[in-house]
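Sanity check

After download, print the first record. It should look like this:
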Amino acid sequence: MSEDHRKMRVLLAEDSPLTRQIEVSALKTIGYEHILEAEDGDAAVALLEQGEEVDLIISDWNMPNRGGLELLQWVRKNDRWSGLPFIMATGQGDKAQEQAARDAGATGFIPKPFQARELEERILEAIGARIQPEKTGKRVPEYTASGKLKLKIAHIQITDHLVLGVARHLIESGVFQPRRFELETQCMGGWNPVRQALEEGTVDGACVLAPIAMDLFAFDVPIRLTLFAHRNGSVMVRSKHGSYKEPWKDFFKGRSFLIPHKMSIHHMLTHQFFSGMGLSAGMITAGRHYDVNLEVVAPVDMPGYLKGNDGTCGFMVAEPLATKTIASGLTDLQFLSSEMWNNHPCCVLAMRRELVDAHEEALLEFHELLVAAGRFIKNRPENSARIAVDFLDPEKTVGLKVPVLKNVLTDPMGIRTDDLYPSKEELDVIQHYMVHDMGIGKLIDLDEFVDCRFAEAACGDRQSKALTSPEFSSALVEPRGAKEHDSSRTMLAREGKYLTFALQGQEFGLDILKIREIIGMRPIRAIPQAPSYIKGVINLRDQVIPIMDLRLRFGMEAQDYTERTCIVVLEMESSEKTVFMGVIVDSVSEVKDVLASQIEDTSSFGATIQPDYILGMAKLDNGVKLLLDMEHVLDVII
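Expected structure tokens:
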């Protein structure tokens, strides 16, 4: 089929304005410009009845008034629209929901959250422009030239999967030399690609949420759970939009809350937390409303989603994303997952059964490596944090820092990787709560699902432990004290290397990760009607760069430029593009390492500069440096 499919008129039904905006952007990214928007199923029906020409419907499942399933049923009963391609796009990403959508006549199904490329693939399949590859239901093992088994293991960008990254590091550094396998890790954009890869057999295994793995097994996907990937390690945070005061539940009521997947421990603990507060929480459906509306968002997208939506009260997610948002001042800590259920399982290693049955020796060696990696993380957290930065953020899009990750790995109530033995009893707690208390998922035979052979050999002797289960406590609701769980947590994002420089006798610091280069003064071309502190622009290697005088920006007295005056060229990320900006300083001094423990909040000292411009005050051996928040200083530009 030609590119004419991009001229199709798409009807998009989605009740969340922000999600609808994101999905419209995804459609435009892949070339679809003719888009009709409907806020629910009733609005979609009204547009169709008005005679709007539509070639494709993409609908959310959970919407008030008329949901996606009801809209689909209406379309299929209407002679004019009965043959219209219909894609169900839903946060209800479990197999039962997909089967229900297919049975009702959906020609496509895409679980949220999804990337633009995933959406394009589903559209092409729904309109018949691309034939879905035949699913053989079997993973065919691959081998190296020397006869080693190639193991392709999927994961996403969370600390929960760090055992896989450390395992890869141990191989690459020569500490561990596998005799029977070769490891390939595959980082994916979210849980849905991981689930699909496991189901279709395009990977040999994956670090995946335990409830997703159990859901796949319930629908006869040939996988086995062979190891836990970690214990604990998730955090609930609340937005700083709004006043958090008694009665505490009023802060959450009537707002949205983000979870990474319907089939997740995060969903389970979130449900129990809000139930303990006397609030109902769930995904909106036609005829059913909740006190708190749960929305599924990819973990890496949660901070941006929260920042752009005052109606969202918080989220629950794996580390290090939660601590990163606390450190940046976007959220406040609500509770650590271990405070509700200590040593709880979350992500697991799920392997395709073809590999489990036929390659016992190679998989035993692989599991021994993972267990060793887990112990490495416990015993060497700083080294592990450095490994994590490259493994979890290879493209440097998440902005992870070693101090944040080290804090996550050393928190006594945080993630644990030293006990990866799979407990059927704990998995049974999960499945019974989800089925009986939440009404999702199916009960499975855990003796068939869990294969402990490799864990028994790799983990060695284990002492039996008393079975625990999640418990709600009123202490989880109350605000945290200023010193609880490390008072320097909010300073972690500010730790790092800083270029120090002088302005009117005061010392300042700039994060060197934001600095492109330092150049001497040169002719500046003035810009008419610009603010006084915008001196003009320069041409730097055929790139036009605006120049700001920091003295004037801070309301200081102007002075003549000297041979020590410099222009520091910054490279800043805005919401849509990379921005380059030059700032004039009196002189530059040196690069200094600044620890979180050396930084104090701006409220603790009297500064003449606008507080928003200052990240904090660094108390170093050679004096005090004011660390600048350049996003706020340059807000006139970016």
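If your output differs, re-run the checksum step. Summary of this record's structure: Residues 360-379 form the longest helix (20 residues).
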